[in-house]
Structures are given as C-alpha cells and as structure tokens.
Amino acid sequence: MSIITLKNFYQFHKTFENSGIIVAYKGTMSQKGLIEIGSVLRTNLQANDVILRVIKKIFAVFVEEAQNIMKYSADKKKNRDGTETGEGMITIFKKDDHFYIVSGNVIKNSDVEPLENRLDSIASQTKDELRQLAKGKKFNTEKLTGTESAGIGFIEMAIKADKPLEWFFEPTDHQHSFFSLSIAIKYSQES
Amino acid sequence: MEHISREATGDEPAVDFNPETGQLQLTGESYPEYPGIFYTPLIKWAEQFITTKPEKIELFIHLRYFNTSSSKCLIDLLEILEEYAETGGHVTVFWHYDQGDVDALEAGKDLDEDIQLHFVFEEVK
After folding, report:
1. Which of A21, A179, B45, B83 is deepest in the core (most CB within 10 A)?
2. Using CA atoms, how far apart are residues B42 and B31, in angstroms rounded to an integer?
C-alpha cells in the first residue's frame, strides 16, 4: 500500500532533503535513461559547486552501477522492441564529507554467494593490488563472461572509492534477494 | 579505404579516422551499453588500414571519461597499432587531457605502461 498522500507529500520531500539526496531513481534502467539521469546528476553537482574531479568520480561510479542494474538485475522488463532492461534503484546523496552512490537490484539467491565472495575478495585487497588486477583482466584477450565483466566494474569502483565498499543482501522471497551496494566518494579531493 | 567521420553522441565519442593522413581521432566520452558494437568496426578498420602500410599512424585520444568496458575496447584498438609498430610501422599515440585532469592523464599513463607504443601526453585547455 502506498504511503504517499498529497497531505504527506511535503514530509516525503523533507525526508529526501534531510537525507541529502541529490538524485534518486527507481525504475527500469535503460542506456537512454542512464544518459539523461547522468546529465541531471552532473548538472546538480555543478550547481552545488562540487569540484570537477569529484563530479567525474561520482559520474563514473554511477555509470558502472547503472549498467550493472541494466545487465544483471534479475527483475527484467520487456521493452517494446523485444530487448530487456533491468529494474533497480540508484540514489546519490551527501552525508557529512562524503557522497554515496548506492544502487540496489534484485538478484537470484544462487548468485548471492559468488557475488559475496567476489566482493569480499575485492574488499581484502589494497588499491595497488586492485589496479594490477583490473589491468590483468582488461589485457586478457579472452572474451569475458557476464559476471566477470561486472567484476571489473566492481574493481574499478573500489579503486575510485574513498571508503571500503559496503554491501548488503536482503532476502525478498525463496528465490531472490535485494542486493545493495554503496560507494563513497570524498567531497574534497587533492588534485 | 573509407574515411570514418562520426559526431559524438551522448555516450559515444566523435570519430575521425582518415586513411589519407593516417590521423585517427577519438574525442569525447565513451560509455555505451555495448561498447563492442561501437568499437568493433573501428578495430576492423584499423586492422585493414595497417595492411596498406601507411607511412605513419597518429592516434589522437581525448576522452574525458570512458567506462570499464570501453577501456577494454581501447586496448584492443591499441594492440592492433602495436602490431604494426612491431613490424616497423611508425605509430604515435597523442593522449590529450583537459587541463588539470590528473585522472585522465593517469588512465593514459596506465595504458602506456602496458602497450609498446610511443605515447605523447598533452594537456589541452
């Protein structure tokens, strides 16, 4: 049941505002949508006097997260042209001296453990190790399978992140879980 | 050979691959959903171009942002040119980056480390 009414819509707006939300999106993520939302995100960050280097980092993380939703969300919607797009959610908000780019989408329970292992392994490595790992994967001439190419995306996000990656799996039914991933980017960066 | 000239779109860089001058340019941002669809024709073009034994090849890259999967395609393109350089071809990569964009510079340096090609780094205003 919807909790949104006209009377509490101001409250709803306040909740967003108090959470430091810059952009929040829930729905199907298409490449077209990504370009548009990305553009809104950049405009909003510029309007908030965020320095270009930080905007670029946030944008890069946003693109990787949005493309992961498009490709790997287990909740797919059929488009008119027969292609499929993933459903999910992305929120970019500012809290204290960091921006957080948080994405969420449904995955199959059978994918939880491999994903958790991959993220654990990324989290246990230093940035230098991650840089070498990303290089090795990119120079590998073999075609990467789906989850592996997402793997590089996670590594690249971890390299850009200013805090360790954080993630959470919330079981939604017997077969599915909601996977949330949070990447933090520091508000001020040395250039 | 065809002269490829394309305008940039929201998620694809502008392309100008000129077989007459041997100057190949990629300018803008690159984060298509399926970079292979965008880059495969360019890589095929480069493969064919090196068989014509051009006097020199100059690749100008000025990408303000490219996503992870685009970087893999860029490496594929650079590796074709590397092959040509290995057989005595003259290849230079001009890596352009916006003034103060240390991350774009670093991305280019990263490629320079692993690709056996002559890289020239130029900060542009």
Report:
1. A179
2. 16
**Distance from C-alpha of B78 to C-alpha of B101, rounded to nearest angstrom:** 22
- The domain total for chain A is 1
Asked if B11 lies within 8 A of A70 by C-beta distance, the reply is: no
List of chain B residues whose C-beta atoms are within 8 Å of the C-beta of residue A156: 68
**Residue A138 confidence (pLDDT):** 82
- pLDDT of A10-46, one tens digit each? 999 999 999 999 999 999 999 999 999 999 999 999 9
Question: Which residue spans within chain B are E strands per DSSP?
Answer: 4-6, 14-18, 23-30, 56-66, 90-98, 118-124
Integer-rounded Cα radius of gyration of chain B: 14
Structural domain contains residue A123? yes
A21–B contact, CB cutoff 8 A:
no
Q: Where are the alpha helices (DSSP H) in A93-161?
A: 109-123, 127-139, 146-160
Cβ partners under 8 Å of residue A66, min gap 6: A29, A34, A37, A38, A90, A103
B68 in contact with chain A, both atoms CB, cutoff 8 A = yes
What the block records as the tokens of A59 is: 């944008």
Q: Where are the domains of chain B?
A: 4-124
ipTM of the complex: 0.92
Amino acid at A30: S
Contacts of A31 in chain B (CB under 8 A): 11, 32-33
Is A191 part of any domain?
Answer: no
- Domain range spanning residue A112? 20-186
Please tell me the class of the B4-124 domain.
alpha beta
* B72, closest residue in chain A (CA to CA): A138
A177: domain CATH number is 3.30.565.10
Tokens of A82: 């027969």
B62-109 pLDDT per residue, tens: 999 999 889 999 999 999 999 999 999 999 999 999 999 999 999 999
Q: Round to whole Å and give the CA distance between B122 and B99.
A: 9
